[in-house]
Automatic annotation (TrEMBL):
Annotated pathway: Lipid metabolism; butanoate metabolism
Protein name, as recorded: 3-hydroxyacyl-CoA dehydrogenase family protein
Family: Belongs to the 3-hydroxyacyl-CoA dehydrogenase family.
Record keyword Oxidoreductase present: yes
Pfam families linked: 3HCDH (PF00725), 3HCDH_N (PF02737)
One MF annotation (Gene Ontology) recorded for this entry: oxidoreductase activity, acting on the CH-OH group of donors, NAD or NADP as acceptor
Limits of the 3-hydroxyacyl-CoA dehydrogenase NAD binding domain: 14-188
InterPro entries: 3-OHacyl-CoA_DH (IPR022694), 3-OHacyl-CoA_DH_NAD-bd (IPR006176), 3HC_DH_C (IPR006108), 6-PGluconate_DH-like_C_sf (IPR008927), 6PGD_dom2 (IPR013328), NAD(P)-bd_dom_sf (IPR036291)
Domain 3-hydroxyacyl-CoA dehydrogenase C-terminal: start-end pairs: 191-287
Residues at the site labelled Important for catalytic activity: H145
Binding residues annotated for NAD(+), in chain numbering: G18, A19, G20, V21, M22, G23, D41, E97, K102, S124, N148, K279
GO biological process: fatty acid metabolic process
Coiled coil ranges: none
Length: 292
């Protein structure tokens, strides 16, 4: 169901947990729309690197989508959410695609957040209700699946868990309206819609390369030239992050038992070799500019 666009409402101040690819991408999007962001990670070194990446992404966003329509938001980076949690209008968790890690982070932040603060887990595959037992108030929890790069993709998959409340859903709609993003609300399920369809296809494409039927370049050329895929599945894998892709495939395989979602050997080897895509400089392709 496509939700109606919500009004901008009160000034937004968001707390983003995790300064990886998705956390910095969401932060970039928010800053471009005048939203103040407190970005949290475990060390000053990680946060310094995140500031460098965000500055680069802000420049890239301007090249791709034009000048921002709002004065830029203010970015604060901290190693503890404690000082900012009381003033946040929403919390977006964007740590690794691991149930145990997400549950631990969500438990800590939800215990400190004022009641009624929407707690948003950004996930490509993990059902929201699997995480709901970890939070203080399950009615405040919902899911999003921002695509990468968040500042260039105008639609966001929004996941309403069985225990997600109306107030949290409305607050998330208000935030996405401020961010200029169109939400599509889907029911909670492993992989939701986009990952359930896309990730097994990428796995199949990698398996074709593994079996020697075609090169990565030729697979992507056929998918773009014959079937209209915008970038090709293997370039998409590099953009997602092959390590994140494999994590999501394991979630799908374990929860729905689909053998198409069992990560193929080539993907597993790339993860072992540290060839995770654009963020490491090498995946199915080589990249001169590395975005960590």
């Amino acid at each position: 169901m496509v939700t109606p666009t919500a009004g901008p409402g009160k000034e937004q101040r968001i707390l983003v947990l995790g300064a990886g690819v998705m956390g910095t991408g969401i932060t970039t999007l928010a800053l471009r729309h005048g939203v103040h962001v407190t970005l949290v990670d475990t060390s000053d070194a990680i946060l310094t690197a995140a500031r460098t990446r965000i500055a680069a992404e802000l420049r890239m966003a301007q090249l791709l989508t034009g000048p921002a329509e709002a004065d830029p938001g203010e970015l604060t980076t901290v190693t503890s959410a404690r000082t900012a949690i009381g003033t946040a209008t929403a919390v977006i968790e964007a740590v690794v695609e691991d149930v145990t890690v997400k549950a631990r982070v969500l438990a800590a932040v939800s215990a400190a957040a004022p009641p009624g603060t929407p707690i948003i887990t950004n996930t490509s595959s993990i059902p929201v209700d699997e995480l709901a037992d970890a939070v203080a108030r399950p009615e405040d929890l919902l899911g999003t699946h921002f695509m990468n790069p968040s500042y260039a993709i105008p639609m966001v998959e929004v996941i309403r868990g069985p225990r997600s409340g109306d107030a949290a859903m409305a607050a998330a709609a208000d935030l996405l309206a401020v961010l200029g993003r169109k939400p599509v609300v889907v029911r909670d399920a492993p992989g939701f819609v986009t990952s359930r369809l896309l990730h097994p296809m990428i796995n199949d494409a990698a398996r074709v390369v593994q079996e020697g039927t075609a090169s990565a370049e030729d697979v992507d050329a056929l998918m773009t030239g014959c079937l209209g895929h915008p970038t090709g599945p293997l370039r998409t894998a590099d953009l997602i992050g092959i390590d994140n892709l494999v994590d999501a495939l394991w979630v799908l395989h374990k929860r729905i038992g689909d053998d198409r979602s069992l990560p193929c050997d080539l993907l597993l080897q790339k993860v072992r070799d540290g060839h995770h895509g654009r963020k490491t400089g090498r995946g199915f392709y080589h990249y001169e500019e590395v975005f960590r």
